[in-house]
């Protein structure tokens, strides 16, 4: 009986090790040829990769009307991956509607670039269902960046007079008077007393009613 158990254990170990070897062998290396902004890169093989689980301020390539912190986000991303070797990890969806590859990007030292962007306060967490693998991990890192008031978080008010409306299905939040916010079914509505509360729970702002929310001059005392 004892012998049988050891045998089983041994077989489990062999299976585990072969799976490990398989998964390591599967992690392919890629070379980064170009960095567009804080969350999009081009690989040498021509693949455009969009970082999963985060958003960074937009660079306006046409009119130069860049969002605040967009240059900083691109610079950090360049520093981390440009002309370097990376590996990709996928979640449930591997492509977005622009046919970009969706991935968690890892540097040679094993650190995840998506997480480092959030850690520095130059990216915020955006949940795109069904890709939830690192959601709580990234939210925790974001909470720390908010506490430290890094980058995009420096102007975020903690106490507000206004109220926001979250959608627990999409993890987006809106100003109370946003037409998209009004359409959220009652059962899916989550009230937030401040943007701070919404971000703390991993919700991200609607682009329609809260554009450039991280701008210094942005005012949040509307109704
Ligand atoms: Zn909205």
Write the SSE topology.
Blueprint: H1 2-26, E1 29-35, E2 40-43, E3 48-51, E4 54-55, H2 70-81, E5 85-89, E6 101-106, H3 113-119, E7 124-125, H4 135-147, E8 164-167, E9 172-175, H5 179-182, E10 189-192, H6 195-200, E11 204-205
Parallel strand pairs: 3-6, 9-11
Antiparallel strand pairs: 1-2, 1-5, 2-3, 4-7, 5-6, 8-9, 8-10
Helix pairs in contact: 3-4
How would you summarize this macromolecular structure in one to three sentences?
The protein has helices at residues 2-26, 70-81, 113-119, 135-147, 179-182, 195-200; strands spanning 29-35, 40-43, 48-51, 54-55, 85-89, 101-106, 124-125, 164-167, 172-175, 189-192, 204-205. With 223 residues, the protein is an alpha+beta fold. The structure holds zinc ion.
Give an account of the 3D structure.
- The protein is α+β, with helices and mostly antiparallel strands and 223 residues long.
- The chain has helices at 2-26, 70-81, 113-119, 135-147, 179-182, 195-200, and strands at 29-35, 40-43, 48-51, 54-55, 85-89, 101-106, 124-125, 164-167, 172-175, 189-192, 204-205.
- It has 2 domains: 26-151, OB fold (Dihydrolipoamide Acetyltransferase, E2P); 155-205, no CATH class.
- The longest helix is centred in the first third of the chain and has 25 residues, at 2-26.
- Helix 3 (113-119) runs parallel beside helix 4 (135-147).
- It has 6 helices and 11 strands.
- Helices cover 30% and strands 20% of the residues.
- The mean pLDDT is 91.
- Bound molecules: zinc ion.
- Zinc ion (ZN) binds next to helix 5.
